[in-house]
Amino acid sequence: MRVLLCTDGADDARQAAAFIGLFKPPTEPEVRLLAVAESGRHPEHLERSLDMLQSVLEDHGVHPDRVTRTGHLAEEILEEAKEGDYDLVAIGAPVRQGLVMPRLTSTASRLSHHLRAPLLIARNVPSSLHRALICTSGEGPAADTLRHGGSLVKLIDAPVSVVHVMSQVTFDPHGPLEALTMSAEEAIQKGTREGRHLIEAVEWLRKAGVSQDINPRLRHGLVVDEVLAELREGSYDLLVVGAHTVPARNRWMDVLLDDITNQFITKSPCSVLVIWHDPKDWPAGL
């Protein structure tokens, strides 16, 4: 497992280091610490940040190497990620203050759209990880989210819930109206398309290596609102979502879907793992 942990010298990266330290891979992960300094700025503070991150990781038995680059934060992360072929890129998430989006949160939004590796935005990391929530849309790219997300979630060795949010329509336009209010258990028992998809989602996670309990969840309403409510009610430590990289049928839907990913990044009370989809694998869009 190759991990790139990134910082611009802020303390937020400590959260990412703490999360990486809680993974339980079969062998010690290869972790590179990347510090990015803006052009014209002295990088001395980056050395202090790298020392702090290295100390956190070594407390967990992880021994990283380190590199410093100069330039724009997001661009340098993307360049290093492309050169290094990483299995995971991790950054810390600062607290959003009012209407101002911190620089690193803005960077996370850019990375989630262009990064070709899973992106971890670490926030409020506990001393141990107890529960993960994986979102599934029911569309084709959901398979990538479940397979690739599951291969990382299995490394935290914690129970998993997989949730699908229904709005005002079902997968099956000819299905019964009561499907709009069914629980996951009812949908699975009655064999609705949503129920069948949840069964398939559990199977994908098992094939990805998730051995802990998997709890299918079906919620009804607006996607962002319902996922955030599930996070609060379930006390999750990690949210796994798919990146929006597949062009939609029109540019307005494209903007809407991209905004959903950004809202999870900025509003989630816990860490967020964004799974990239290769658009070539899903050329038809939504």
N-end to C-end Cα span:
32 Å
Strand segment tally: 10
Shape: elongated
Ranges where pLDDT stays below 50 over 5 or more residues in a row are 97-101, 245-253, 282-286
Strand order of the largest sheet: 3-2-1-4-5-10-9-6-7-8
Largest sheet: 10 strands, mixed
Notes on the structure:
With 286 residues, the protein is an alpha/beta fold. Helices cover 40% and strands 20% of the residues. The chain has a ten-stranded mixed beta sheet with strand order 3-2-1-4-5-10-9-6-7-8, sandwiched between helices. α5 runs parallel beside α7. The radius of gyration is 19 Å and the shape is elongated.
Task: Write a concise keyword list for the protein shown above.
10 strands; elongated; 286 residues; 40% helix; alpha/beta
SSE inventory with pairings:
Blueprint: E1 2-7, H1 13-22, E2 30-37, H2 44-59, E3 65-70, H3 73-84, E4 88-92, H4 103-114, E5 119-122, E6 132-135, H5 142-153, E7 160-166, H6 184-190, H7 193-207, E8 214-220, H8 223-234, E9 238-242, H9 251-267, E10 271-275
Write a short abstract of this structure.
By secondary structure, this protein is of the alpha/beta class.
